[in-house]
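User:
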Amino acid sequence: MAPPDEPRPRRTIADLVDVMAALRTPGSGCPWDLEQTFATIAPYTIEEAYEVADAIERGDRAHLKEELGDLLLQVVYHARMAEEEGAFSFADVVDGVTAKMIRRHPHVFGDESARSAKLAKGWWETIKAEERGAKSASDVSGAPAPISLLADVPISLPGLTRAVKLQAKAARVGFDWPTLAPVFSKMREELAELEEIALPADPRGSKPPGGPPDPRLVDEFGDVLFVMANVARHLAIDPETALRTANAKFVRRFAYIEQRLAEQGRTVDAATLDEMDALWVEAKAKERGG
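Assistant: Predicted structure:
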């Protein structure tokens, strides 16, 4: 009788770094991996971060483990390409972020007086501001140029997320409405401005469809989204999470419409709007226990 297979040793970060190095080795590596650049990999990095968020929202820990691995792979991938350029390595990434976390948590890692001191409000932002100032001083000669309070909010963030972060930054220096009521007033004002332009330009009206949208419409619609992000911030709601929840609800209820029509031997293409709307109301009632 053959002995049972021995369990393979657990892989480590070092193994993953070695695998990526092998994939990127000219001549013996993977042709696809060798063709990639920071720019071509960046969309995958963003996608994997969303996959992590999705697994967390669904409470799927098995999927979360897998997606965290995929996200880690993205970090290793970018670090490997940087190492090939002689810029930095994965070890430099680890060293840098570890040092940053220690530096930003003196109440945990500092001396006895720092550990015994109560963490002051805004301490994290104060340390980050000091780090930005130090970086500016090291990057330029002479007097450093002023750095905007909003400069470190990444442009690549999803629009709603970036809007919330920009508003939160400005709010820290008092540039904010003191209560929620004026935010709603502003929301109604922006909606009215959008409506004033949008209704006469309704593409389903007398005007033929197609062509680029009126730039004024784009501008006003952006203002509506921005103020809605502000509403979300004042209510301590993550707008991206809220929108993903609404998307999932729409998919779920539309699937109910398709299922009920299929039971009748029909498809959504053959159903009227009134019929589908009635089934939507039915799906909504069922979800609410009606």
